[in-house]
Design goal:
heteropentamer, A alpha/beta (147), B alpha/beta (664), C alpha/beta (327), D alpha/beta (275), E alpha+beta (340), B: alpha/beta, Rossmann fold, FAD/NAD(P)-binding domain, 34 strands, 28% helix, E: alpha+beta, 2 domains, eight-stranded mixed sheet, four-stranded antiparallel sheet, 11 helices, 32% helix
């Protein structure tokens, strides 16, 4: 068994709702606002589509941080989706914290379609947090990490 | 195994500048299932699209991944191109390598690597894509407007003018609503009846409008374009199509002690009555609570005097069922009950009135014939205290009142104060307020006129207590600006009671599966962008039922609402979004959690019989999604513990495949 | 109490109110009682048992039983009644097909705790007042205070109230009881993250994925569990990696969040003594603190905190800022 | 390096033939050419496609074929769907042979053979039929009754027409469930057809097909005077490990993958009806 | 027969651990469990471990091989064969007997080399029981808890641990321990043996016998009406299976880590609803059938195939752990009662 020996780079999965945050990410691009390439975005219709299973799956497969972005509370395209997401993620994050998973590996941010700047800043700060936390060791699946 | 084509766009140098597009195309070309891979300068150009179309045909592609700009930009373009080549448009996925790669990353190596990963994720998703076909449903070209106030009337008239039949269901014997009870309207001071009653008549005479007054919605089934509504027609005990509205019966009826709702109980009417002179339909109604004939079987005067034999004591509630394509909720409002505001002595003294009652006291058709007389002794009041925000803007934790601003009180109080001062210059008028809110065309000017021209005493402060004493109302108040206590001996106190949605709104919302906020106002589909639609497709909102608003706002919302309805009814068929939820009935527990979170009421339950593997049958309650109503948010899919509920186009497995591909 | 229950059950069978009885059946020893359905008075006389070890929550069996023809008598303890009510709210049981007699429960004993006292070679256990008299093959008799060997779920009982019933065996209902059931959760919350992580690794690494916790849980009554369904993409059968242990238990707790009545069966049946209730209680505690007190199964309320919201709910970031140990 | 029986070898799919709308026949050889392993008629092999799973399939080619093995596979689940999507050149995992196989060198030797198959049930019999054809001298006459729902569902139809029917000493009786245009053969269910045809009771019969067909055919043969000891059947059910250990194929005191899949019908009487 | 003073147990363990890994039962939150010995770890006093000793030969999950795909080709990578030997100390007589039952499955042709390899690497030091539980009924299967089989048999009596080699491996182990051991007389443990045997017979299950099962035909047992009520409360969990020292059903599963497919084998339970689920259906759809399979296998099928040897060793784990208090003794009694 041999462990991958490249220098560690964080891997961050961002779930973005189609209507606000994904558009916010696009706007960050349109405005050429830089954020690290470690962030990979998955488009979902709404933040309420994000199943805790997806988040755990990302960690299992090697993600070091997972961020969920949705419309600002009250602005959900589907009126209430992000409210549900908010409760679900709060509970999930609390449980992860309870199990001793480092605080900050998971985050929720509300980013509107107009907030390209905020999107880039959020991603920069999130990557920074993850870099400071280091590699995800507590929610990893060793089978996915060894050759 | 899918046969996937990968198309990498240069976007001129927009992408190719920071992403090695050739390398992306080559690398992705080696992914399992990819049978064709190419890069091209402008994929969205005609020739780019042709490349996609030709490749689909030549390589018998079952799926396509376009690595290009954001799907928000060209997803539709590429889907159409695919469809033109015979590929189901939902077999196309976009990897966003411009907005999310080339435009934000400067390093070619990092950009290329990320582009490849995003491409891989899209390929992984396409592997699990299935062709989707949008469902279609016909549209019943008829609208239902619930509520016959100004909002409902205006909506109905606009829809009717566009050529679609409309039914107005109104729970009281006449349409007109609250506006019919008003005296003058701010800020122009034109008489409410003068502008409203022509509309009422227009509605009555419009060939496309049917007025179902004294009726209520009993049951709503179906979905956008295809509602079936059961309407209860309450028994009037008067044949509506026979009664001429001559009013003879209402004069001869011996029972004179029924409180007159139209005058808010400030006067009495007969047991058989026509609410007001311009009522539409102008038909008498028997109040079964007061009619001696109905209660004891002894009387029958009205029947004897009726020349056209319109009276029918045996009438029963009837139900009619109609199909509609769209439903408008225009259920309006009512002032809140003041039983929790004993400090203002509302229940202790008849001279403490609500603003709406004050409207009736000022109204020429009101109980005092338009002369301002105080109810207790029918004398002219000389000192009147107006109290603002009674029940509005209350602390959310307090047991009484509502948390929001009722929005219209400041303006109608200014109107009342001004009209009072104009008609009776000897009257002192005090207005106690928290803030005066006058954002509207000519509103602030109007208010300033009240203060400056009519010398209304506006005092920033709250009234603490009103005590009836020796025919006077002792008002204890504070003046916050002067920081002093005030004691005023008033003849009348007028309370600007907060408004709240009509009580009928909540049960109606349940029937419509339309969502409501905690204050029982209907919620709009989007607070900014879809303000006249309910999240439940096919249900629209007009007037106060959506939130406090004044008459011009109500009318404009009503017309906007009508425009939306017309837009819907104009369509022959509705094409749905195929990316909707669906439930695997074999795995569904029927636990109802999904329906609880569905903002659209798209989920219903049915008892279904299942053949078990051991050849027995079992009946189970399972969820069923109406694809015409579902908007595809996915809230239900995460609520479902068994994973029975999934979303087409964004399935659990598709999203997990993307996660896996990204984290590989 | 056993005699009164048998007598009442026989009456209800006799007068046709029910055609069978859900209860507990005697075993080889006093403690290995088995939930069972009794059809005749003879069977009841012979095998029906109610003692310090009849802890099993029978409400889950009623999902299947109430789908059968006829009407079943169910004796529900307070905690069982919460589970049953929750199942009613989820339309999983047919209330009309069950006649519920509420029975009081003053706590059930945990055989594993008796063994943990070091008593071996047990030949007999009898109940006397609040005590259990344990006799061994060496003719010794140990008096064990029942309280000392209470099941975890009984030690931290939340309520003696029966929330759904047709009649009460005692005629009187119990009340909610003051309890400290969140203390242990708070204790773990107060640990530094590393210690917390080590604690849970120590606990969850013992999991053998026997699924006893899931299969006994009245809230885990899915037609097909995602972890058994190859199509779900997360199916797994064995804790093949630490991650799988975490995944299974996090998701299981999450799936029952807002629906878990805290009946404590998961911890009772875990052969590896994993304190699974501490996961469920964590969610309950969080929901109480963040979204207002809520007790699943207590009322007819069908929208629980996870399927509900308020405009001004706390943001997820609160998890990282509120109380406990910071990092 | 571990060399356990559970670890497969690599096989290459060289040819894929579509037999019926849902049955394909795959030809498998070792990467260096030749067969991956030897087998006797009626034995099975475990085929695996990583990501799709592993499953037991009977080897439908005769051991007398020296170049390759064949598998006729009906599409019915995740693995078989993946196998059907393969293209020639695809490598698969293969391990075996498993099971007891037909007693071709003992009980069958010198006997007149009656083969009765329904639908995909022909696949396991094809191996033994061709074995008997290739070793004509060792066996008496060969009669084959084969039926399917329709003409399109007859597996190996070309081989039946071109080879079996033209063989000396081999008689083939085909039937389909319902009349069909272009079919002038017999119409009806296999069990009834067997009774109609009537066979010499000294023959040794082998039945394979859906459980219901096996049940009625066996009853039919008994009516004709066959003893259960003369009738064999084969069942490939629920096998996972192939070596009689994982416990899935345990029915009564038998392990289908080890003690079977070929059973003499009298043996089945003492087995619970769990197949 | 050799012996060593209890006070030198730590030295004894250290000596063994010098040469090879030593596993023994230690106290843990769940009861007792096998752990690798390290200085300071104490042998548990418990009568038995919660999980059985089968884990050492048939672990809950085990890697079979990996497959890498590229294009149409497959590359199969078998795992490295482990070679380190180890000592299992403190295995009770019931668990020792369970190895024989597992052997009859895994060492039968074709041999399971993963299992065989582990068996060969292990030296089993069996420890006689002196404090049996009420759930013990090993005697029903001819197991003498006071005289366990194994490579070395051991007894605690008074201040001493007595050791007796029973095989070449055992001789070799004792030889390695050299001067830590002193000679002892077999008579020293006889009193204890008699006491244990008496206790076992005096305990509630002391008279349980399964021999009556053999008087009835397989199909008669199979068709017994009692299965319905016996299985009625079964939750279909795998607790009994997973704590059972003789249950050996397994599943072969795969895990795609994104780069390769990892084939592994893991415990499975015939009590699970999808145990027999295959593409074309499930042959045991009800919990009754699955419940029946487990007990028929242990009490009828296994003895039929293995000279009357039952697939149970009477360790009593399932009696202690079943969430609903069902167990093999109740099953046996119910079945036998039918045919009396």
């Amino acid at each position: 068994m041999q462990v991958r020996n490249e220098p560690w780079k964080p891997l961050i999965v961002a779930f973005c709702c189609n209507w606000c945050s994904y558009a916010g990410a696009d706007l960050a691009g349109t405005n050429r606002l830089n954020y690290p390439a470690d962030v990979k975005i998955i488009r979902v219709p709404c933040s309420c589509r994000v199943n805790p299973l997806f988040i755990l799956r990302a960690f299992q497969r090697g993600a070091d941080g997972v961020i969920v972005c949705g419309c600002h509370p009250g602005d959900c395209h589907y009126t209430s989706g992000n409210y549900y997401a908010r409760r679900r993620m709060t509970l999930l994050f609390s449980m992860l914290d309870y199990l001793g998973i480092e605080k900050g590996r998971t985050r929720v941010e509300w980013v509107s379609a107009a907030e390209g700047q905020k999107f880039a800043e959020t991603m920069n700060s999130f990557v920074e947090t993850i870099v400071s936390l280091g590699e995800n060791k507590r929610l990893e699946d060793l089978r996915c990490k060894t050759e | 195994m899918q046969r996937i084509g990968v198309f990498v766009c240069w976007c001129g140098s927009n992408i190719a500048g920071t992403v090695d597009v050739k390398k992306v195309a080559q690398t992705l070309g080696r992914e399992p299932g990819v049978v064709f891979s190419a890069d091209y300068q402008y994929m969205c150009s005609q020739s780019g699209q042709d490349l996609i179309k030709d490749s689909i045909k030549q390589y018998k592609l079952t799926g396509a991944v376009i690595c290009s700009c954001s799907p928000r930009m060209h997803e539709n373009t590429f889907r159409k191109a695919a469809a033109a080549a015979g590929l189901n448009p939902y077999m196309v996925e976009i990897a966003n390598i411009r907005e999310q790669v080339s435009w934000i990353h400067k390093d070619m190596a990092a950009g290329t690597e990320k582009a490849i990963i995003l491409g891989r994720a899209a390929i992984a998703k396409v592997h699990l894509n299935a062709p989707l076909i949008a469902g279609e449903s016909p549209v019943t070209k008829r609208a239902l407007v619930i509520g016959g106030g100004i909002a409902g009337i205006q909506t109905a008239l606009d829809i009717a003018d566009a050529g679609f039949p409309v039914d107005i269901v109104e729970k009281s014997p006449t349409i007109g609503g609250k506006m019919a009870q008003l005296d003058k309207t701010f800020p122009t001071l034109d008489c409410a009846a003068c502008i409203l009653t022509p509309k009422m008549v227009e509605a009555a005479q419009h060939e496309n409008v049917r007025i179902l007054a004294y009726s209520e919605v009993a049951e709503v089934k179906g979905f956008v374009g295809n509602f079936t509504v059961k309407i209860r027609r309450k028994a009037r005990y008067v044949k509506e199509d026979v009664c001429t509205g001559c009013g003879l019966c209402t004069e001869k009826c011996p029972q004179k002690k029924a409180p007159d709702e139209f005058n808010l109980g400030l006067s009495n009417r007969r047991a058989i009555y026509i609410p007001f002179a311009q009522a539409v339909p102008k038909v008498a109604t028997i109040d079964p609570d007061y009619c001696m004939m109905l209660k004891t079987g002894k009387c029958g005067v009205c029947s004897k005097v009726c020349g056209v034999k319109a009276i029918d004591y045996t009438q029963k509630d009837e139900f009619i069922e109609e199909n509609y394509g769209a439903i408008v909720a225009a259920t309006g409002f009512e002032p809140i009950g003041l039983d929790k505001f004993d400090e203002f002595a509302y229940s202790l003294s008849p001279d403490v009135v609500t603003s709406l009652e004050y409207e009736r006291l000022m109204n020429a058709a009101g109980p005092t014939g338009g002369t301002l007389l105080r109810p207790s002794d029918l004398k002219h009041p000389h000192t009147i205290v107006f109290v603002q925000c009674v029940g509005s803007r209350c602390d959310e934790k307090s047991e009484k009142g509502v948390p929001y601003c009722s929005k219209v009180c400041c303006m109608y109080t200014a109107k009342h104060a001004m009209l009072t001062r104009e008609k009776y210059p000897d009257t002192e008028v005090y207005v106690f307020y928290i803030d005066v809110r006058t954002p509207g065309k000519n509103f602030d000017e109007f208010y300033r006129r009240a203060v400056e021209q009519y010398d209304v005493h506006y005092i920033k402060g709250m009234v603490g207590k009103v005590v009836p004493e020796n025919g006077k109302l002792k008002v204890q108040a504070s003046d916050l600006l002067e920081n002093r206590q005030l004691h005023i001996d008033a003849d009348m106190v007028v309370l600007a009671a907060a408004i709240e949605p009509d009580k009928s709104a909540r049960p109606l919302a349940t029937m419509l599966t339309a969502s409501m906020d905690t204050n029982d106002f209907f919620t709009e589909a989007h607070p900014k962008l879809r303000p006249v639609e309910s999240p439940t497709a096919g249900v629209f909102l007009a007037g106060m039922c959506q939130g406090p608003k004044d008459i011009p706002e109500t009318v404009s919302q009503a017309s906007a609402c009508a425009a939306k309805v017309i837009g819907l009814l104009n369509k022959d068929r509705l094409v749905g979004n195929p990316c909707v939820a669906h439930s695997d009935e074999l795995m569904c527990n029927g636990c109802s959690q999904c329906a609880n979170v569905c903002p659209y009421g798209a989920i219903t339950y049915a008892d279904k019989e299942f053949r078990m593997p051991d050849r027995t049958t079992a009946v189970r309650r399972v969820a069923q999604v109406n694809p015409a109503v579902c908007q595809g948010c996915g809230a239900c899919t995460v609520t479902c513990p068994s994973g029975a509920m999934d979303l087409f186009g964004f399935s659990n497995n598709q999203i997990m495949a993307e996660v896996d591909a990204i984290c590989k | 109490m056993q005699d009164r229950m048998i007598a009442r059950a026989k009456e209800l069978l006799e007068n046709g109110t029910v055609d069978r009885v859900m209860g507990w059946k005697k075993g080889e020893f006093i403690y290995d009682v088995t939930p069972a359905v009794f059809y005749t008075a003879d069977e009841l006389e012979k095998d029906f048992v109610m003692n310090a070890f009849t802890a099993a929550n029978v409400s889950k069996y009623l999902i299947a039983e109430t789908k059968k023809p006829g009407r079943i008598l169910a004796f529900l303890k307070p905690c069982d009644s919460y589970s049953f009510r929750q199942l009613m709210n989820e339309h999983r049981v047919d209330r009309d097909n069950v006649y519920i007699v509420g029975i009081p429960s003053w706590g059930k004993a945990d055989m594993e705790k008796i063994r943990a006292l070091g008593i071996t070679g047990i030949t007999d256990i009898t109940e006397k007042d609040g005590d259990l008299l344990v006799t061994t093959v060496m003719r010794e008799t140990h008096a064990v205070k029942k309280y000392d060997v209470y099941l975890e779920k009984c030690k931290n009982c939340k309520s003696k109230r029966i929330v759904v019933y047709d009649e009460l065996l005692d005629g009187e209902n119990g009340e909610d009881v003051p309890n400290n059931r969140f203390d242990e959760v708070a204790k773990i919350e107060a640990m530094p993250p590393d210690e917390r992580f080590a604690f849970w690794r120590g606990e969850l690494s013992r999991c053998i994925r026997c699924n006893a916790c899931r299969n006994v849980c009245p809230a885990c009554s899915c037609e097909k569990c995602v972890f058994d369904n190859p199509k779900s993409g997360v199916e797994n059968k064995a804790p093949a990696d630490d991650f799988e242990e975490n995944l299974f238990h996090i998701i299981r707790a999450y799936h029952v969040a807002g629906r878990c009545t805290d009946c404590g069966e998961c911890s009772r049946v875990c052969p590896q003594h994993i304190p699974l209730h501490l996961l469920n209680r964590k969610f309950i505690k969080d929901m109480n603190e963040l979204y207002g007190d809520y007790q699943a199964g207590e009322t007819e309320q069908v929208r629980h905190p996870v399927t509900n919201y308020r405009d001004d709910d706390a943001e997820p970031g609160i998890v990282y800022t509120r109380g406990g140990s910071g990092r | 390096m571990n060399n356990d029986v559970l670890i497969p070898r690599v096989g290459v799919v060289t040819d894929i033939r579509t037999d019926t709308p849902d049955v394909k026949t795959f030809r498998v050889i070792a990467p260096g050419g030749g067969k991956v392993f030897e087998h006797i008629p009626g034995q099975c092999a475990m085929l695996s496609l990583p990501g799709a799973g592993e499953g037991m399939f009977s080897i439908t080619s005769s051991p007398t074929n020296r170049e390759f093995m064949e598998f006729s596979i009906k599409k019915c689940g995740c693995l078989t769907t993946a196998l059907h999507e393969m293209e020639p050149g695809q490598q698969v995992g293969i391990r075996g042979p498993y099971g007891n196989g037909f007693p071709v060198d003992t009980a069958f030797k010198g006997k007149d053979m009656l083969f009765i198959a329904g639908g995909i049930g022909l696949a396991p019999l094809r191996s033994v039929i061709n074995y008997c054809r290739d070793k004509r001298a060792d066996y008496g006459k060969v009669e084959i009754v084969y039926g399917a729902r329709s003409m399109d569902d007859l597996v190996d139809y070309r081989e039946i027409l071109d080879e079996w029917m033209t063989d000396e000493g081999v008689a083939v009786h085909l039937t389909i469930d319902r009349p069909q245009e272009g079919w002038d053969g017999h119409v009806g269910f296999v069990p009834t057809y067997v009774k109609e045809l009537g066979f010499d009771t000294n023959m040794t019969a082998v039945i394979c097909g859906p459980p219901i067909m096996i049940k009625f055919t066996l009853a039919g043969l008994t009516d004709l005077g066959f003893d259960k000891t003369q009738v064999y059947t084969t069942m490939e059910l629920r096998m996972k490990c192939g070596v009689g250990k994982c416990g899935r194929c345990n029915i009564g005191d038998k392990y289908v993958c080890k003690d079977g899949p070929v059973f003499r019908c009298d043996q089945l009487e003492n087995m619970p009806d769990e197949y | 027969m050799k012996r060593v003073n209890r006070s030198k147990l730590g030295d004894l363990f250290a000596k063994i651990a010098e040469a090879e890994a030593l596993y023994l039962p230690v106290d843990a939150p769940e009861g007792a469990r096998y752990e690798k010995w390290a200085p300071g770890k104490k042998l548990s006093n418990a009568t038995n471990t919660v999980r059985s000793a089968k884990d050492f030969f048939f672990p809950q999950t085990e890697r079979l091989y990996d497959v890498k795909r590229s294009g149409k080709t497959l590359e199969i990578e078998p795992p490295e064969t482990e070679t380190e030997s180890f000592v299992l100390f403190g295995v009770r007589a019931c668990d020792v007997r369970s190895f024989k039952i597992l052997d009859s499955v895994f060492l039968a042709d074709p041999v399971d080399t993963f299992y065989k390899n582990r068996r060969e690497r292990a030296t089993v030091v069996a420890l006689a029981c002196d404090r049996p539980e009420e759930t013990c009924f090993c005697g029903a299967f001819g197991i003498d808890a006071a005289a366990p089989e194994g490579d070395v048999s051991a007894w605690f009596e008074g201040d001493f641990l007595y050791l007796k080699a029973q095989s070449e491996k055992g001789e070799a182990l004792l030889a390695k321990l050299g001067d830590l051991l002193e000679d002892a007389d077999e008579k020293d443990v006889e009193t204890q043996q008699m006491r244990t045997r008496w206790m076992l017979s005096a305990l509630p299950l002391g008279k349980v016998s399964f021999e009556g099962m053999k008087k009835t035909d397989l199909m008669d047992h199979f068709k017994n009406e009692k299965w319905r009520s016996l299985s009625e409360a079964c939750l279909g969990c795998g607790t009994c299976t997973f704590v059972c020292p003789t249950c050996q059903c397994y599943d072969v599963k795969e895990f795609d880590d994104g780069r390769k497919i990892r084939k592994f084998r893991c415990w499975d339970s015939c009590m699970y609803s999808d145990f027999t689920l295959m593409a074309h259906g499930n042959s045991r759809n009800s919990q009754l059938e699955r419940f029946r399979q487990r007990f028929m296998h242990k009490l009828v099928y296994h003895p039929n195939n293995h000279d009357g040897e039952f697939g149970c060793v009477g360790c009593g784990r399932c009696l202690q752990k079943c969430p609903i208090g069902m167990n093999i003794v109740k099953v046996e009694k119910a079945l036998e009662a039918t045919h009396e």
